[in-house]
Amino acid sequence: MKAIQIALITLIVPLITATNDLHEYYVSVTTIEYVEDEQSVQIISQIFIDDFEKVLQQRYDDGIILTTKDEPEIVETYMNRYLSEKLIFNINGNDVKFNFLGRSYKDDIVYCYLEIENVSKLKFITVTNRILFDVFDSQQNILRVKAYGKNKSFLLVPDNDKCMLNFD
Prior knowledge:
Elements: H1 2-17, E1 27-35, E2 40-48, H2 49-59, H3 74-86, E3 87-91, E4 94-96, E5 99-106, E6 109-116, E7 124-129, E8 140-147, E9 150-156, E10 162-166
Parallel strand pairs: 1-8
Antiparallel strand pairs: 1-2, 2-6, 3-4, 3-7, 5-6, 7-10, 8-9
Protein name: Peptidase E
Organism: Winogradskyella aurantia
Pfam families: DUF6702
């Protein structure tokens, strides 16, 4: 099973970073890293701009266009609200909320920067990732977790949108 996940990630990651106006694959990549010295869980979620724009338009404001110089400040509020509903964390048995730090754009990807503070020890983490499952039936979400020198990857799909990693 692990070999299949690694093979899928090897095949899918180049597709998500390709710069095409249209894409056939619906994939996001979320990287989670526990930084022990800072007692924080740092998260970067990469989502195709056009896909994220579509969901924000459907849910909040059909006039939203991402990556414009005059992008309204409300866009970050909408991104935070959407991600807070779709990206759920439980650390050491406690549901926790992340801080939305901001976003940046590169090529056709939006990078959302999130952080969970005051995590003195990471014993286990459970992540539910439903990003864009409500818009695209074929959406897949790759989750990469790094802590204490260990790396683990998961491929989450609508029927299996949760994973748990134990560090104890």
